[in-house]
């Protein structure tokens, strides 16, 4: 068994991530390239993976019902958009009035 | 570039993948045939067994070519009480010494009697480690089964590195390997 490189699709679980691997192949009849996606559950000890990260998986012993892989390293971090902090002061320097609905 | 053949072989070694080398024993060269048979089914590295299949002691056949060579067999569980929090690592299930070559474990001297694995949470690795003895030895049983250390035991009794290791995965009867909610 060798290492796999894939993209983190879900990190909602505790110390576990779902990693997807895309595989393109030429359909013998339709002569078109199709995409097949395989999903692997992997162990992430530090809960450090985010959705979109590119990670390397190493095979391991069965850790749970579906976990047979361990995240060995994060190859590329996903670019996560963080909105700029909201300035509490308005343009003229006074505090913006609170609007009650 | 690609990895060398030895590196790839080490990577594919089920003992390395299973974490047995590292958690239980150090890197060694397997130089001896060891067969462990439960109810007529021989175990191989990484195979699955339920608790009902491992109630009685297995038939452990030690290879070799002469009976004068003596061996020590250790059976431990490095995942006790649970793989995510192995506070009792390693749990000693069985300890047999002075096993003559070409025979099985029943011809040896049982220091710790067989305690069948009964994992309560998760999938546990049950590891059989075979050592070659320098001479006939008197081994005193440890005071308790928890916190047994195979490396320290081998060093204390001058056994050196193991000559054969085999392990299997064991989980509770109704378990599917998933999380257990109490």
TrEMBL record, chain A:
Please note every region of biased composition (Polar residues).
Answer: 92-101
Which intervals of the chain are annotated as region Disordered? 81-101
- Record's Gene Ontology CC terms? ribonucleoprotein complex; ribosome
List, alphabetically, the InterPro entries matched.
Answer: NA-bd_OB-fold (IPR012340), Ribosomal_uS17 (IPR000266), Ribosomal_uS17_bact/chlr (IPR019984)
> What highest taxon heads this organism's lineage?
Eukaryota
SUPFAM superfamilies according to UniProt: Nucleic acid-binding proteins (SSF50249)
Keyword annotations: Ribonucleoprotein, Ribosomal protein, RNA-binding, rRNA-binding
User: Which regions form coiled coils?
Assistant: none
GO molecular-function annotation terms? rRNA binding; structural constituent of ribosome
Biological-process GO terms, alphabetical: translation
What is this protein's function per UniProt? One of the primary rRNA binding proteins, it binds specifically to the 5'-end of 16S ribosomal RNA.
Please give the family membership noted in the entry. Belongs to the universal ribosomal protein uS17 family.
Name of the protein: Small ribosomal subunit protein uS17c
Automatic annotation (TrEMBL), chain B:
Question: Which residues are the signal sequence here?
Answer: none
Instruction: Please give the superkingdom of this protein's source.
Output: Eukaryota
What the entry lists under InterPro entries is as follows:
PEBP, PEBP-like_sf, PEBP_euk, Phosphatidylethanolamine-bd_CS
- PROSITE patterns given for it? PBP
Per the record, the similarity remark reads:
Belongs to the phosphatidylethanolamine-binding protein family.
Q: What name goes with this protein?
A: Flowering locus T
Q: Which classification does the entry list for the species?
A: Eukaryota, Viridiplantae, Streptophyta, Embryophyta, Tracheophyta
């Amino acid at each position: 068994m060798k290492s796999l490189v894939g993209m983190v699709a879900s990190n909602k679980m505790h110390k576990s991530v779902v990693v997807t691997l895309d595989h393109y192949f030429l359909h013998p009849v339709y002569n078109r390239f199709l995409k097949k996606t395989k999903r692997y559950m992997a162990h992430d000890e530090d809960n450090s993976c985010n959705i979109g990260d590119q990670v390397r998986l190493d095979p391991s012993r069965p850790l749970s019902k579906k976990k047979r892989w361990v995240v060995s390293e994060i190859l590329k971090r996903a670019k996560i958009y963080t909105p700029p902090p909201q300035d509490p002061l308005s343009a003229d320097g006074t505090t913006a009035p609170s609007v009650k609905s | 570039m690609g990895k060398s053949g030895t590196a790839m072989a080490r990577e594919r070694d089920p003992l390395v993948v299973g974490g047995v080398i590292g958690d239980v024993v150090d890197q060694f060269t397997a130089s001896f045939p060891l067969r462990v048979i439960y109810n007529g089914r021989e175990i191989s590295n990484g195979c699955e067994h339920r608790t009902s299949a491992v109630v009685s002691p297995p038939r452990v056949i030690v290879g070799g070519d002469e009976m004068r060579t003596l061996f020590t067999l250790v059976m431990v569980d490095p995942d006790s009480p649970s793989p995510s929090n192995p506070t009792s690592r390693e749990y000693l299930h069985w300890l047999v010494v002075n096993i003559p070559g070409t025979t099985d474990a029943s011809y040896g001297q049982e220091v710790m009697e067989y305690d069948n694995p009964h994992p309560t949470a998760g999938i546990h690795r049950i590891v059989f480690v075979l050592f070659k003895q320098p001479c006939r030895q008197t081994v005193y049983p440890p005071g308790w089964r928890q916190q047994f250390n195979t490396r320290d035991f081998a060093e204390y009794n001058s056994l050196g590195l193991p000559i054969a290791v085999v392990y299997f995965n064991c989980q509770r009867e109704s378990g599917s390997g998933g999380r257990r909610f109490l």
